[in-house]
Amino acid sequence: xxxxxxxxxxxxxxxxxxxxTIRAEGTSHHGxxxxxxxxxxxxYSQSWLLTIYDWWVLxxxxxxxxACSVPKYTLPWFQQNLRKGQHLDIGVGTGYYLAKxxxxxxxxxxxxxxxxxxxxxxxxxxxxxxxxxxxTRTLLHDITRPLxxxxxxxxxxxxxxxxxxxxGPVPAKTAVFSHLKHNLTADGVISGASILGKDVxxxxxxxxxxxxxxxxxxxxxxxxxxxxxxEALREHFYEVETQVRGAIFLWKASKPKV
Length: 258
Known about the structure:
- Helix content is 34%, strand content 23%.
- It is built from nine helices and nine strands.
């Protein structure tokens, strides 16, 4: 089944069926709606990075720089908060978390600023027999903007290793919850993980990665801290659970305040 690309217009229904790629209002062909966001997303257009991402970022760096093993902590956190029904994965990376999870009964929608990351993740899920390519919806979208009107309510949402890449201080990053909560079902859950820059102890390896990431625009997280993230989540959700593992902030929230 061929994948179609649609341009989202206000109040226009874009989800005409599984397998569609929706380009939301305000994104270019490369998904750029702001210079800073586009700079971070453009990195994932480099095929070599997508190839080594799981080994380097989720393996070596997460374990030894952030002191938070993905198989031991982050992946189980994702799996515990994945719900059957509609799931929205935002900032897809390589699709590692979805590929390592049981997707029986899950309708997957992928959202990202980068078309290469969307395609790579959709193809990975299909190649590993998780979800047929024609059954995966993709959304080329800047998550700082509300989701298209045609998006359904989601039973779960995930934002893993995304917030630390978003530009601005914590209040600017967490403004996304003000609109994402409206696309979450009443009993749905939203979860994620992010690298903290403040009020955590970074080892030498972590300081080097932090410095390079913030220098080249991949990160903007020197001031990111757990207290502000927790406060922002509680502003938008009645139930919030957070924890810090090494330099990683793990969070989940449910019962949106709408």
